[in-house]
Amino acid sequence: MKNVLITGVSTGMGRAAAEQLVARGYRVFGSVRRTADAQALSERLGGNFIPLVFDVADEAAVKEGLAQVTETLAGAGLDALVNNAGMAVSGPLMYLPAEELRRQFDVNVFGLMNVTRAALPLLGAREGHAHPPGRILNVSSIGGRLAFPFIGAYAASKHALEALSDTLRRELRIWGIDVIVLQPGAVKTEIWDKAESEDLGPYARTPYGPILEKFRELFVAQGRKGLAPEVLARLIQHAIETPRPRARYTAVPAYVTGWVLPRLMPDRWMDVLVGKQLGLERRRP
After folding, report:
1. Closest among 75, 63, 65, 81 to 118, alpha carbons compared
2. Where exactly are the structural domains of the chain?
3. Residue-wise pLDDT tens digits, 238-274
4. Which residues are 227's β-sheet partners?
5. How far apart are CA 143 and CA 152, in angstroms?
6. Which is more confidently placed, 197 or 283?
7. How far apart are CA 189 and CA 192, in angstroms?
8. Whether this model's pTM surpasses 0.90
9. Mean pLDDT of the chain
10. Chain centroid, CA 227 distance in Å
11. CA angle 8, 240, 147 (to 5 degrees)
């Protein structure tokens, strides 16, 4: 039986990946932050799903969770770690509180590294391990290569994730552990209902107030047209199983207009295009 650890399985892509892999005969260790979610998922997925309750930003709790994994594996190793847990902070950087920016990195960057460091011995980064080396799949975003207004904190955290992934992939060659990056665009989940009702009050009195309303409308509409979580779950399974995985997999609904063209277009052209779309025109005195 193959063993996989997935963080952030309570909703969305993480839950879909857990369901996909359990259905294919994997034993899945899945992290959630609430005991109620752990119980619900255990009932839903059965005995091959083992819940772990911890916040990835809490290093001590992560170590306790991985100790539980080690005990359960009883000398076996992990075939894959899927670093899926993450969150998004939004708001204009000029007014975004420092603690919000810090919270973004605590989860998406430092939290990812907390789990990765704790899981590496189980993936084969130790002398004398008796199992084949595992793989690490880091869930990034097209925001790891493209940055748009009002989600700068999120994009910055994903840019950092991309750099960490490249470095880890090269450093971990000595153990035979591969590191793969998944770069999804919008994914169709309940997160967009939350985004639609997000309180923009803190920025309402800034010059960005009316623009943020328009941005949210466009952002939510795009998100609801996103890929189904099951599509990403199948891609995760492929990245775990294929003999020669790519270093990066990108999954975007409108691949050419949503990924290829923005990366090929000169930065100044993108500035003008995005500015006109959102109304971010220069203010005249």
Report:
1. 63
2. 3-190+228-261
3. 999 999 999 999 999 888 988 999 999 999 999 999 9
4. 187
5. 9
6. 283
7. 6
8. yes
9. 93
10. 15
11. 55
Angstrom CA distances, 150 to 102, 154, 219, 220, 227, stand at 16, 9, 11, 13, 22
Q: How confident is the model at residue 214 (pLDDT cuts 50, 70, 90)?
A: confident
- The CATH class of the 3-190+228-261 domain is alpha beta
Q: What is the reported pLDDT for 189?
A: 76
Tell me if 116 sits within 8 A of 122, measured CB to CB.
no
CA–chain centroid gap for 29, Å, is 17
Q: What mean pLDDT comes out for the span 133-161?
A: 96
Catalytic residue at 154?
yes
Rounded-to-integer distance, Cα 176 and Cα 48, Å: 27
What Cα–Cα distance (Å) separates residue 215 from each residue in 150, 240, 253? 8, 36, 19
Write down the catalytic residue from 26, 95, 154, 208.
154
Cα 170 from Cα 178, distance rounded (Å): 9
